[in-house]
Amino acid sequence: MHGEEELNCLGEPASAGFASLLFRGAALLRAQELDIIPSGIPPIQSQDSHQGEAGGMPFRAMLFADAKGYSGLDTASLRIFNRDFLGRIGEVVAHHRETVLTVRTAGDGLFVVFRDLPCAILFSLALRDAAAAVDWSNRGLPADLGLRISLDAGPVLEYSDPVTGRPEVSGHLVNRAARIEPITPVNHVYASRTLAALALALHVPGVRFEYAGETVLPKGFGTLPLYHLTRNAAE
């Protein structure tokens, strides 16, 4: 999928700056997949320069995560989960607090919106590692308990929630990010093609996006090319 096709899939109005960034990233992603060295791609600008432009919505990076196996926990295990497992998540959030626009939890569910995309990527890997590093069977929880993490990015509607008073976002891409998470393998991070392209355009260091294939999303949300986010071993 090229830049124009990807832009048409976002479902939200995008600024000219964002479109330029996405086109650049899509070209770099395509070149990576074909194992070629791209040329003729204009210099990059910072993400901040593309936010709040006339005729477009601000773009944000979003993360969804949940704990596989949570629904089967009994009351005693839930107490441990709430203290220890969520405690690990809380430590990661606290460490990255300045980069987080808003965070929301519900049971084992986590939704985080970030001020910029590189921070979202680093957060997702730190979150994955924090959960995967613990032998949860030693804490009285299932040994295979782990997080499924999804990332997406693009134009969103920002508003202040009149119920909670917190900053929130809504829109097509928020829903799309939520649909990626359930099909993500445990202790892995899956990202949309949009996010992968933006990451390459912004030259996020130390990470790699490996094509995971065209994937059918749940709840009739269609098919989406997804990428497995990992650290770049070479760096």
Report on the architecture of this protein.
The protein has 235 residues and is α+β, with helices and mostly antiparallel strands. The chain has a single domain, classed as Nucleotide cyclase, GGDEF domain (Alpha-Beta Plaits, 2-Layer Sandwich), CATH 3.30.70.1230. It contains six helices and nine strands, in the order ααβαββαβββαβαββ. The strands form two sheets. The chain has a seven-stranded mixed sheet with strand order 2-3-1-4-7-9-8, with helices on both faces. Strands 5-6 form a two-stranded antiparallel ribbon. The chain is globular and about 55 Å long. 36% of the residues are buried. About 3% of the residues have low confidence.
Low-confidence segments, given as residue ranges, are 48-55
Strand runs, count = 9
Average per-residue pLDDT, rounded, comes to 87
**Cα-atom radius of gyration:** 18 Å
Tally of DSSP helical segments: 6
In angstroms, what separates the terminal alpha carbons? 28 Å
Given helix and strand content, the structural type is alpha+beta
Strand order of the largest sheet: 2-3-1-4-7-9-8
> Quick one: biggest sheet?
7 strands, mixed
Which band does the percent of strand residues land in?
A: 25-35%
Helix content: 25-40%
CATH class annotation: Alpha Beta
Shape: globular
CATH architecture: 2-Layer Sandwich
Here the CATH topology equals: Alpha-Beta Plaits
Q: What's the CATH superfamily, by name?
A: Nucleotide cyclase, GGDEF domain
Structural domain tally: 1
